[in-house]
Design a protein that fits this description.
Number of domains: 2
Oligomer: single chain
Distance between the termini: 13 Å
Largest sheet: 10 strands, mixed
GO molecular function, one term: alanine racemase activity
CATH architecture of the largest domain: Alpha-Beta Barrel
CATH class of the largest domain: Alpha Beta
Mean pLDDT: 97
Low-confidence stretches: none
Helix content: 25-40%
Structural class: alpha/beta
Bound molecules: pyridoxal-5'-phosphate
Number of strands: 20
Enzyme class: isomerase
Shape: elongated
Strand content: 25-35%
Protein name: Alanine racemase
CATH topology of the largest domain: TIM Barrel
Radius of gyration: 24 Å
Number of helices: 12
Family: Belongs to the alanine racemase family.
Pathway: Amino-acid biosynthesis; D-alanine biosynthesis; D-alanine from L-alanine: step 1/1
Length: 375
């Protein structure tokens, strides 16, 4: 790995071996010839798109999925031959670049196809995956008539190829099956309508694969959150078919330790006041790093012990309450393990009333991602 030199001790440490391990476990549950699409949108859920994509390919993923044209181009620069699919919206003006770069686009509108035909001057084929909206209400065609209209429009142009068809589930991480089953039935009806099966039919996200309907693999599965070692929901976490290894740790070091007396306050607004003589440690991480002010009170690990963040979190720093006067430079783990203690992404998510997906995404780019691969 080419880890750059970083001076500030705050870093996210990404365990690429954990990512590979999670993919290898998933692979054992796949039928022969089912492709793994590694979902590396949003900078690989904040883990680093190129490094994660490389690890995923080494572990057996054969396709990469992103959300935007910019993400696709970034991936394409580093992976000249791997299939790359943009799951979300691409403007028709991007079609020419997509064809030249062999990037697969998601399509769901006949107007968009017509615009592409008038705008794109590429002589290369443009691969398209038709998106079916079976119940997410987000993007995708919602009726068989629209599907056939779109399909015929695409086939009018010799440069456009229906390479795939897919849908996305709204409730795959929940216990109740009824909405999910409705979506599956609808998707199967849509596929059956096509005169010719495209190369890749895909529907399953992580939760579908792990618990909801592990047999619903079609030609490819889209593996996102659990590739990073996180469960898609608390419900899925209780049903996991294999253990997940989380890949993301967040670490820093003590940069200052001071003793304060009872009555002395800490931070903006003086919202924390020591009730007895205490040690306060300062950490070089703040809300500009993604440690938003709502995390005040959250525990961090030092010397294998849990201690709380006290007072308001500043833009670049925050303060913690220490049991003893640790040395400057003592390692502090905000997410991850120390000795027998662990602070998980799930704990962070629940602290700020959200889902674990959101946490690595909100750790800003000021926090360098540092990679290691355990041998
Ligand atoms: C983000 C995304 C995924 C990945 O979902 P996970 O729950 O992380 O597996 C799959 N498909 C689509 C269309 C997505 O947008």
């Amino acid at each position: 790995m080419q880890n750059k030199q970083h001076f500030r001790p705050t870093k996210a440490i990404i365990d690429l071996q954990a990512i590979k391990q999670n993919i290898c476990h998933l692979k054992e549950h796949l039928k022969p010839n089912v492709q793994i699409v590694a979902v590396v949108k949003a900078n690989a859920y904040g883990h680093g798109d190129v490094e994660v994509a490389r690890a995923a390919i080494e572990a057996g993923a054969s396709m990469l999925a992103v959300a935007t044209p910019e993400e696709a181009l970034h991936i394409r620069k580093h992976f000249p031959t791997t299939d790359v699919l943009i799951l979300g919206y691409s403007p028709s003006s991007f079609a020419e670049v997509a064809a030249n770069e062999n990037i697969i686009l998601t399509v769901y509108s006949k107007d968009w196809v017509q615009q592409v035909c008038t705008q794109s001057n590429s002589s290369k084929p443009l691969k398209l995956h038709i998106k079916i909206d079976t119940g997410m209400g987000r993007i995708g065609v919602t009726s068989i008539e629209t599907l056939m209209d779109l399909y015929n429009e695409i086939n009018k142009s010799s440069n456009l190829v229906v390479d795939g068809i897919f849908t996305h589930f709204a409730t795959a991480d929940e216990e109740d099956d009824s909405y999910f089953n409705k979506q599956v039935t609808m998707f199967q009806q849509f596929i059956a309508t096509l005169p010719k099966k495209p190369r890749i039919v895909h529907a399953a996200n992580t939760a579908t694969m792990l618990i909801k309907d592990p047999q619903l693999q079609f030609d490819a599965v889209r593996f996102g959150i659990s590739m990073y070692g996180l469960a898609p929901s608390a419900y899925v976490k209780t049903k996991l078919p294999f253990p997940l290894q989380s890949a993301f740790s967040l670490e820093t070091e003590l940069i200052e330790v001071k003793q304060v007396e009872a009555g002395q306050s800490i931070g903006y607004g003086a919202t924390f006041t020591a009730t007895e003589s205490s040690y306060i440690g300062t950490l070089p991480i703040g809300y500009a790093d993604g440690l938003i002010r709502k995390f005040s009170g959250q525990h961090v690990l030092i010397d294998g012990k849990r201690v709380p963040i006290v007072g308001r979190i500043c833009m670049d720093q925050c303060m913690i309450l220490l049991p003893i006067a640790y040395n400057i430079g003592e390692k502090v783990t905000l997410i991850g393990k120390q000795k027998d203690e662990e602070i998980t992404m799930d704990e962070w998510a629940s602290k700020v009333d959200t889902i674990n997906y959101e946490i690595p995404c909100i750790i800003t780019s000021r926090v360098p991602r540092v990679y290691y691969t355990k041998q």
